[in-house]
């Protein structure tokens, strides 16, 4: 990917979050449940050990994982609008 393509994706993301993503409370709840399901997916013992080893190497603690779960569970519809605003602000920043 080049920088121009990355900026196009950021522009598209803002448009998607503002105009095309139609989330209501029910849709948000389903999205949160799906995300938590992915984060806490069942793993066989060998995969669980491997995942734990990778988290150890990356310095990810159980407290970090708990915090991530709490952030996911507390996501609101307003968070999507705020995220779009942040991306839009970054897109508007000119280095040259």
UniProtKB/TrEMBL annotation:
Entries under Gene3D superfamilies matching the protein: Metalloenzyme, LuxS/M16 peptidase-like (3.30.830.10)
Tree of life domain: Eukaryota
GO annotations of cellular component type: chloroplast; mitochondrion
Signal peptide: none
GO MF, one example: metalloendopeptidase activity
InterPro entries linked to this entry: PreP_C
Protein name in UniProt: Presequence protease mitochondrial-type C-terminal domain-containing protein
């Amino acid at each position: 990917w080049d920088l121009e393509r990355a900026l196009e994706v950021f522009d598209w993301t803002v448009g998607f979050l503002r105009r095309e993503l139609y989330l209501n409370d029910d849709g948000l709840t389903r999205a949160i449940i799906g995300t938590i399901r992915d984060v806490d997916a069942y793993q066989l013992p060998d995969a669980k050990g491997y995942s734990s080893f990778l988290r150890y190497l990356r310095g990810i603690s159980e407290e970090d994982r708990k915090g991530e779960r709490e952030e996911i569970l507390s996501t609101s519809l307003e968070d999507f609008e705020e995220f779009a605003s942040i991306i839009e602000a970054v897109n508007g920043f000119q280095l040259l």
